[in-house]
Amino acid sequence: MKTGIRNYKEITKELKVNYPKLTEYEVLTLAIQIERNEILENGLVVSTNDKTPSGIEAISIALGYTDSEPRNTVANILTEIANKE
After folding, report:
1. What is the tens place of the pLDDT at every residue in 29-76?
2. d(CA 15, CA 59)
3. How many DSSP H helices and E strands does the chain contain?
4. What is the pLDDT of residue 18?
5. How many of the other CB atoms lie within 10 Å of CB of 55?
6. pTM of whole model > 0.85?
7. What is the longest distance spanned by two Cα atoms in the chain?
């Protein structure tokens, strides 16, 4: 399930309210890490349908991958895609 990606400024405001004892440096560092994690989460998450694929799914769909048979390795999938062309 995809999550929203918040801007680090929004995260900073939230952290300052919830954790007032953190220094400005700690707040900014955490905010940037949280934003980065949200970006990664949205890029790697597996979606429930092909209408809104994640980043990694969109790449595999563009390369021609279909899940017609279960496979167990990335190498097998890439070899199969290469052999199709």
Report:
1. 999 999 998 888 777 766 666 566 667 777 777 777 666 655 556 677
2. 34
3. 4, 0
4. 95
5. 13
6. no
7. 59
The first and second tokens of residue 48, run together, are: 């429930």
CA–CA distance from 33 to each of 7, 12, 46 (Å)? 11, 11, 22
Query: Taking Cα atoms as reference points, which of 10, 1, 13, 6 lies closest to residue 39?
Result: 6
3-state secondary structure of 54: coil
The interaxial angle of helices 55-62 and 24-44, nearest 10 deg, is 30
* CB-CB contact of 31 with 19 (8 Å): no
Q: Is the dihedral of CA 17, 23, 28, 29 positive or negative?
A: negative
Encoding tokens for residue 52?
């809104």
- Rounded Cα gap, residues 74 and 61, in angstroms: 14
Q: What is the DSSP letter of 31?
A: H
Q: Which residue type sits at 67? A: D
Token look-up 């004892």 returns: 21
